[in-house]
Amino acid sequence: MNLAKVPVGKSITNDVESVQLVVESLSELLKIERAILNESDEANDEGTNSMMSDFIAEQEKTIWMLNSWLN
Question: Which listed residue, 16, 37, 47, 60, has the most CB atoms within 10 A of its CB?
Answer without folding.
Answer: 37
